[in-house]
Design a protein that fits this description.
This protein is mostly helical and about 170 residues long. Helix content is about 80%, strand content about 0%. It is globular, with a radius of gyration of 17 Å.
Amino acid sequence: MEDYLQLVQAAKQGDTEAFAALYGEIYENMYRFALYTLRNTADAEDVVSEAVTEAFASIHTLRREEAFKSWCFKILANKCTDKLRESCRFIIEEAEEISDIGNRRSEGGLEEAAVVRGLFFELPAEERLIIGMHLFCGYKSREIAEILHMNENTVRSKESRGLKKMAGKLKG
C-alpha cells in the first residue's frame, strides 16, 4: 500500500512512469467496464484512452492518493455516459420511455438487453459505479469498499438498492 501511495504521489508530481505503472494495474478492469457498457471494442478503447488522458492531465487535482482507482473509474463512467449520449441516442431515449418498452419486453433478447442497459444508466452514478465494478470487473464488495473508501456494508446496500430499482422497473 505504501508503494502504491508513493506511485500516486510521484504521478501527481509529473512522473509519467509512475502514472503508467498505476494505469497498468487498472487498465484491464477499466477496459472490461467500458466494453460491457458500450458493447463496442473501438468505443471502449476510445473512452479508456480519453479517461486515462484526462486522469493524467488532471492528476495534480487528486486530493487523496488512496482515491486514485475510484477517481479513474468515475472519470471512465462519465466518459462512457458521454459516449452513449453521443453515439447511442436510442438507448437513452428508451430508458426515458421505459413504460412504453414494458409491453414489448418479451419480443427478444436484444431489446431486453437495451432495456437493462437503459435502466442501468438511469441509476445514480455511485450505484452504477458499484454495480459495474462488481458485475463487469469482478470486484468483491470488500475490494470496492477499499477502492471507493466506503464501508463494505454500504457498498452492498447501494448495490442491492440499485439492482432492486432496476428489477422494479423491469417488472412494472
